[in-house]
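ZP: hey, is the acetoacetyl-coenzyme A complex queued? I don't see it on the tracker
AM: it wasn't, my bad. submitting now with these inputs:
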Amino acid sequence: MEIKKVCVLGAGLMGNGIAQVCAQAGMEVTLRDIEQHFVDGGMNTIKKNLSRDVEKGKMTQEQMNALLGRIKPTLDLKEAAAGADAVVEVVIEVMDVKKKVYAELEEIVPKHCLFFTNTSGLSITEMASITKRPDRFIGTHFFNPVPVMRLLEIIRGHQTSDETLEIAKAWGKKIGKEVIVVKEAPAFVVNRILCSMINEAFFALDEGLASAEDIDKGMMLGCNHPIGPLALSDLVGNDTLLRVMEGLHRELGDKYRPAQYLRKLVRAGNLGRKSGKGVYDYTKK
Ligand code: CAA
């Protein structure tokens, strides 16, 4: 089966990027969120990204208009999911919320529709278990910013079929990503390594080993990372990082204990770029 119509649930940081790359690959896309300002925010980000590409001469204005014409923003779940070949679910990383969405979806989507979850680390098998299609359920983990990052980490659940895996791999390739397939485990592979490293940077900051700027500078200049770990946490969202670490800690033990400083930032509402403040202050720029 070839995926031609995609429903993306969640218009935030990751969702709008996924909608963009799907439309870029010629697919019909619906982009759904629960409040109008989330949907508008997602569409505005896509327009901003594409306008930048037009200015750079990477695409024409006509191509941009055609691409935008393939993305239909909506608040209505039924309208978004009806007729979809695949639903890419990018809702908040809370198992019960995701399960509720899948229970609703089950009644709307066609029988052949595949469920792709963009979780950063929750169990694919557990989500799939509440649906009537665990064989057609798979993890498709993207990286931020989606239009730029080349990787798609694909995670099989316990009952994911070979056919679903092959379709997901072909879809990943079509939207311009390199695919790796990993086994289901807390935070999978990339986030297990990446988030642990970022968490360690928060410990170093809290212990006063160096300033945030110098920790980031150290990892950029000493290890050739494109961005320092603390700035990266602000980019992906400190709340997202904390949730990944809490999941790792819960499942794999004390080695993955979230840094207290990270907890404090999240409790203060300093979630990173999206809230204007995180480790760094973005309101002054
Ligand atoms: N959306 C689309 N395009 C973007 C973008 C965005 N949000 N941000 C930057 N770009 C594009 C720019 O337009 C530019 O494009 P061109 O090459 O065509 O000019 C290119 O990316 C480079 O951007 P900049 O020159 O402005 O900035 P930069 O060189 O500092 O790169 C970056 C920015 C790509 C974000 C870079 O800092 C980087 O690669 N950082 C690491 C990102 C990373 O590790 N992501 C994974 C996070 S983990 C995750 O997402 C998983 C999870 O579950 C937590």
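AM: back. The pocket of acetoacetyl-coenzyme A is lined by residues 49, 52, 56, 120, 143-145, 147-149, 191, 194, 226-227, 232, 236, 240 (CB under 6 Å).
ZP: great, adding it to the tracker
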